[in-house]
Design goal:
By secondary structure, the protein is mainly beta. It has a single domain, classed as sav2460 like domains (Lipoxygenase-1, Sandwich), CATH 2.60.60. It is 4% helix and 45% strand. It is built from one helix and twelve strands, in the order ββββββββββββα. A five-stranded antiparallel beta sheet has the order 6-7-1-9-10, with no helix packed on it. A five-stranded antiparallel beta sheet has the order 5-4-8-11-12, with helices on one face. It has a two-stranded antiparallel sheet with strand order 2-3. The chain is globular.
Length: 184
């Protein structure tokens, strides 16, 4: 999919939204003791140049060196409505040597997506708020990570390929061996 708006204008600003809810624990004993399990999902973007990961934007590195990619910060619980973590990408400012951006979601504490409620990730055209891709992550996926999409540069134009494949890795850097096969 070419990342162009209607009328053929290239997209310049996209963002990745990630949302989820904590899974309620069953009540125990007379006084309950329920609550929710702490689930910490993380949105990340891996920046590749000629097949090598040159930078990762994630909860521990909130801005790319050139500030073309900015992470909103780490949500440790999924509490709240809407997108719990957001990564903003200025495609026009990505350095020319970067040819692939890989969007991943990982489960930092190691729960699989089968243990998470209402989890989703999406890519959005920031100027119109139109969803370019959306995945539901909950509901039985036995993985701790998912490669959401690859946005790659082709003849000066950014194109997106939806992936939606699971892998087992709790951090963005652990995802590198699994996502390399999807690079354009």
């Amino acid at each position: 999919m070419s990342l162009r708006k209607e009328g053929g204008v290239d997209l310049t600003q996209i963002w990745m939204g990630l949302g989820w809810d904590p899974v309620p624990r069953p009540k125990r004993g007379f006084f309950g003791g329920g609550g929710s399990s702490e689930i910490d999902l993380d949105a990340s973007v891996l920046m590749f140049s000629q097949g090598q990961c040159v930078e990762t934007v994630y909860f521990g590195h909130l801005k790319s060196k050139d500030r073309s990619i900015i992470h909103s910060g780490d949500n440790l619980t999924g509490e709240g409505d809407g997108d719990d973590e957001v990564i903003s990408v200025n495609l026009a400012a990505i350095p020319p040597h970067v040819d692939n951006l890989v969007f991943v979601v990982t489960s930092y504490r190691g729960q699989t997506f089968a243990e998470v409620q209402n989890a989703y990730c999406r890519l959005i055209d920031q100027s119109t708020n139109a969803e370019l891709a959306r995945y539901t992550l909950a509901g039985g996926m036995p993985f701790t990570g998912v490669t959401m999409a690859v946005v790659h540069r082709e003849a000066g134009t950014w194109k997106m390929r939806a992936i939606g494949e699971g892998f087992n890795g709790k951090t963005a850097n652990k995802a590198i061996p699994f996502v390399s096969q999807y690079l354009a």
